[in-house]
Design brief:
11-stranded mixed β-sheet, 809 residues, 25 helices, metal-binding, 10-stranded mixed β-sheet, Penicillin_amidase_N_B-knob, single chain
Length: 809
């Protein structure tokens, strides 16, 4: 071998080895430290941290402030990039990390005003540094910043070639803003609902959910025309932009739905309440919730924390436990303003022209010059339609559309409410705390050791004038549809110690007795109906011996409670005699038990036929807006209503001379489903099993870049259940695959008879470091429906712990 050839081979080996050597070095530098001693600036005394066998930190400190400082450090050690990403979404600073591709997303969140609200919140916190909640928030962020200053930056920053910035009090508001945005159904639903009313007319709205509001499009302000007004175009363009943002945004835990229920002492075998909760959130790596157990001489809590939020959003003490679902209330209104034709910087309000105010935002971009964003604002809020002009080329005479959002009200101090929720002793203190949650709207389930159970719908409810249809484009000029403050908390729906001893929430609509339903974007009734079937005393023989193990079975239930409505209609639409393969498939569907195990053929047949039925029913009228429609709860809710109405105009196809009927559309959908499955899997229906089309892959923000997906993403795995089951696995429809995009982000069961027996699970792992053994160690257990203990007993923790860290001043 020549010297030159040997040299070439040596260079090749070195080049091939360098990435591996770099990964090994990075592994050593970025591994979490869970044993030995570390110095932590600002501690008043030593803090002991025991890590159980799933990497959950159990923090023992002399003061709550020291515990919070340790929590911030440990949270950053496991999840710094996730914490950074969430604050940057709300703040509108993603372009600083990812460059020009994120500029439109930054424009959107800057226009909403999340960063301005965050600055106001931080200002209030700085003005009252002596308040305990503000001291604890600062201690938490001091812990994060100590990690940033003293440890190697995580792998994501090394790949992106940027440095993490210190956390500020403003970042709490930024993260809360993203959370509130992800809860808000109005961004996707209102523009499309209004467009359908303008474009198709009232007959088509009659079968849609949200329930059609009679007369919404017959007033002078909203008269149906042959072409929607420019403001309506801009509003729909905004909704399409929101869909793009949600689809293209790096996975960061988009809030989708949830289940929660609580049983009173007389309903359980233990004679104490049991609380169960599984919030449904967009899948991501790391997992959404960071678990930590804090113990001090005067405080103890096992909490589930959102990245960057100093107080637990879910949790339990030794005295109380709480969980949450989305309330789905409407806390956003869009207003059609009337611009002055002689001065586009003025709009008419009540009886005069008013100047639009402006604010200037500088968006910094990695690798490019910064851009300046000018945000105009009316008295209702930011002019959101300015975002859409470039996309749909509206001329300058277009009437502006502004947005009102409860979350950005300067008086909103949900962070303070969370602190009080964590610290509550007794139902009265807890109710007083949740009453101060402004936005997002939540259903908060509660149980305590005194035997109380409750659920409150929290969130400030806008006081709208009678007859205001808040899901349409409102008249901003007259002032008659303006919000007049907020209703008192006594108007919020609630259930407190009901006679039947059962409370549950599945994002369904409920109201105070004698009061109208709160406007909202409520989820389909399938999960609520299933909980009613399983838990309500009238359906289960007045059971009084429920156990923790049976609560697990409920959380893992895969049956679709309302699936038989579609199946029965479909079967009734088909001729009794079909060709052999179709007959075999029809038998599988007819005998299906409505459940979704991996080996179910009936589940696959149902979902494929359901997909084509949705597409054939709504697609011709909605055209390329069908994707937007399918991304809302409106699609599933509306289809149930359309399915029950044989005379619905949605059945008739646009552009044909014949009048198509329900049975014809369903039979056509069945034929298409069979043809689709045959082309995908062949002519053996027994092989069309659910596990071949339904899978879950947990994505990391950098997992879209190949081959980084192999390093950062977790999965894919075949998985059971469906988007209509209690064990909800949400997915967007496509013809051939159902890839899970949201799931139970944690499953928790808290028995108040002994909180040390609480059970929980995380879909992937506690750590965000792909080299850490706790990165995905819970995924196998989660996928097979397993749970692990949420330890609070010191002796059990010591038995489970194989690592101990001492943090010292």
């Amino acid at each position: 071998m020549s010297h030159s050839l040997r040299r070439v081979i040596l260079i090749f080996i070195i080049l091939a080895t360098l990435p591996l050597l770099w990964l090994v070095y990075t592994d050593q530098q970025t591994q979490p430290v869970r044993s030995g001693q570390l110095h932590l600036t600002g501690l008043g005394g030593p803090v002991e941290v025991l890590f159980d066998d799933f990497g959950i930190p159990h923090i023992y400190a002399h003061t709550r402030e020291d515990a919070q400082r340790a929590l911030g450090y440990l949270h950053a050690q496991d999840r710094l990039f996730q914490m950074d990403l969430l604050r940057r979404i709300g703040a509108g600073t993603l372009a600083e990390l990812f460059g020009e591709t994120m500029v439109d997303t930054d424009r959107f969140f800057r226009t909403l005003g999340v960063n301005r609200y965050a600055a106001q919140l931080a200002g209030r916190m700085r003005q009252a540094p002596e308040l305990p909640q503000n001291r604890l928030a600062r201690a938490y962020q001091d812990g994060i910043n100590h990690y940033i200053a003293t440890r190697a930056k995580p792998l994501e920053y090394q790949i992106l070639r940027v440095d993490p910035e210190p956390f500020r009090l403003e970042d709490i508001g930024h993260t809360m803003g993203y959370m509130a945005y992800s809860f808000a159904g109005a961004f996707k639903t209102d523009p499309l609902y209004h467009w359908i009313g303008q474009q198709l007319g009232e007959r088509y709205l009659a079968d849609l959910a949200p329930v059609y509001l009679e007369g919404a499009f017959t007033t002078e302000a909203h008269r149906v025309t042959t072409r929607p007004a420019a403001g309506s175009d801009a509003l729909l363009s905004l909704s399409e932009q929101v869909l793009r943002i949600n689809r293209d945004l790096f996975p960061a835990g988009h809030f989708i739905g949830s289940n929660s229920w609580v049983l009173a002492p007389e309903r359980t075998a233990s004679g104490k309440p049991i609380l169960a909760n599984d919030p449904h959130i967009g899948i991501a790596v790391p997992a959404v919730w960071y678990e930590a157990h804090i113990s001090t001489p005067d405080f103890e809590l096992y909490g589930h924390y959102l990245a960057g939020i100093p107080f637990a959003v879910l949790g339990n003490s030794r005295y109380h436990a709480w969980g949450l679902t989305m309330f789905e209330n409407d806390d956003i209104d869009f207003y059609q303003e009337r611009a002055n034709p002689d001065n586009p910087q003025q709009v008419w309000h009540r009886d005069q022209w008013q100047d639009l105010s402006t604010r200037q935002e500088l968006i910094r971009i990695k690798g490019a010059e910064p851009v300046t964003l000018i945000v105009r604002e009316s008295g209702h809020g930011p002019v959101i339609s300015d975002l859409s002009k470039a996309a749909i080329r509206l001329d300058d005479s277009s009437q502006p559309v502004s947005i009102f959002w409860t979350f950005t009200d300067p008086a909103n101090n949900t962070v303070d409410a969370l602190y009080r929720v964590n610290s509550a002793r007794g139902i009265e203190q807890f109710e007083a705390a949740v009453a101060d949650i402004w936005a997002p709207g939540l259903n908060i389930n509660y149980a305590d050791t005194q035997g109380n159970i409750a659920m409150w719908a929290t969130g400030r409810l806008p006081n709208r004038a009678p007859g205001v249809h808040s899901m349409t484009l409102l008249d901003g000029a007259s002032g008659e549809q303006d919000i007049d403050g907020y209703l008192d908390f006594s108007h919020n729906p609630r259930r407190v110690n009901p006679d039947n001893g059962v409370i549950f929430s599945a994002n369904h609509a409920y109201s105070q007795p004698g009061q109208p339903m709160i406007p909202g974007y409520y989820a389909p009734a399938d999960r609520a109906e299933r909980l009613h079937q399983l838990l309500s005393p009238e359906n289960n023989g007045d059971r009084r011996d429920w156990t923790l193990e049976e609560m697990k079975a409920l959380q893992l239930d895969t049956e679709g409670a309302l699936n038989d409505h579609f199946r029965d209609r479909l079967l009734a639409s088909l001729p009794p005699q079909q060709e052999p393969l179709a007959q075999q498939a029809l038998s599988q569907l007819a005998n299906w038990d409505l459940r979704y195990p991996l080996d179910s053929v009936g589940a696959t047949l149902f979902e494929r036929a359901y997909y084509f039925a949705l597409k054939n029913t709504f697609g011709d009228e909605l055209g390329d807006r069908l994707e937007l429609f399918m991304a809302t709860f409106m699609a599933e809710n509306s289809f149930q209503q359309v399915l029950a109405n044989a005379d619905s105009p949605w059945w008739d196809k646009s552009g044909t001379e014949a009048v198509e009927r329900r049975e014809q559309i369903l039979a056509e959908s069945w034929s298409q489903a069979l043809a689709s499955l045959r082309s995908q899997f062949g002519d053996a229906p027994n092989e069309w099993v659910w596990g071949r089309v339904h899978s879950i892959e947990h994505p990391h923000p950098l997992g879209k870049i190949r081959p980084l997906n192999r390093l950062f993403n977790v999965g894919p795995f075949p998985i059971d259940s469906s988007k209509r089951s209690l064990s909800k696995m949400g997915y967007s429809y496509d013809e051939y695959h159902y890839r899970v995009s949201s799931n139970p982000s944690t499953r928790r069961i808290i028995p108040l008879a002994d909180v040390e027996q609480a059970q929980g699970i995380n879909p992937v792992g506690q750590s965000g470091n792909p080299f850490d053994r706790h990165f995905d160690d819970q995924a196998p257990l989660y996928n097979r429906g397993g749970y692990r203990p949420q330890l609070m007993n010191r002796q059990q923790i010591e038995q489970a712990a194989d690592e101990r860290l001492e943090l010292i001043p």
